[in-house]
Amino acid sequence: MSKMMLSLKGVTKIFNKGTQDEKRALDDLSLEVKDGDFITIIGSNGSGKSTLLNAISGSLEIDSGQISIEKQDVTKWPDYKMAAYVARVFQSTTMGTAGGMTIEENLCMAELRGKKRGLKLGVTSKRRSRYVELLKVLELGLEYRLKQKTGLLSGGQRQSLTLLMTTLTLPKLLLLDEHTAALDPRTASKVMDLTDEVVRDNGLSTLMVTHNMNQALKYGNRMVMLHQGRIQLDIKGEDKKKLTIAEVVEEFGQTLKDETLLSC
Fold first, then answer.
1. For 25, which of 38, 109, 143, 144 is 20 to 30 Å away at the CA?
2. Which CATH number is 220's domain given?
3. End-to-end CA distance of the chain
4. Helix or strand or coil: residue 190?
5. Domains held by the chain: number
6. Does residue 247 belong to any structural domain of this protein?
7. Where does the pLDDT of residue 124 fall: very low under 50, low under 70, confident under 90, or very high at 90 and above?
8. How distant is the alpha carbon of residue 115 from its chain centre?
9. Does residue 262 sit in helix, strand or coil?
């Protein structure tokens, strides 16, 4: 039986509390994520998707409830402490890498994450050789450009590099926040295939927010739909594999008003 990786119990987050603009972004939400689960998360704008990831990553303090990773209560942990357990890839292609640093420096920074060691001492010939082999997997030719600054790379190249960086120190939990939304369809498809490979090969417990229904149904072993801060649908295994976009639209079309979400 798979062990429990992440547990959320009665998590609530209210913005602008006590004002006319009060917004209950997460409403008594409970969710259990088993080790190795790859969960896609859908929902219209304002449903609580990004708020959920912000709460899990420690970048947003919740009002009530409990968040645990491997039975460790991390509810009050700040983002810098959570970084030892959680890796996150954002929609912006510039947020996962340091544009002023070289490819090898970014990889080294990821590898030394949480360790007390200077960056300059970290980029050794042994590590450099390893980075070359790792970058070959991407088939982007980056193994020949180790000393190039990442700010000169394309969006797809930077997202691919960011994903690769997460495998250097395998996180307990990988959070993907619409990480292909800023890419063109062809590049997005490549990055998603790489994502699937990275997650499966390393058995990473993953939560992926997406507005793309094709992605939500094609990838992962489980799909969760949020609406007004609550879970409306939680489907997994064979039931998820059999589910079609048409069935989702027919059942939840009034709830999911996002045109991009409902598009094929």
1. 38
2. 3.40.50.300
3. 36
4. helix
5. 1
6. yes
7. confident
8. 23
9. helix
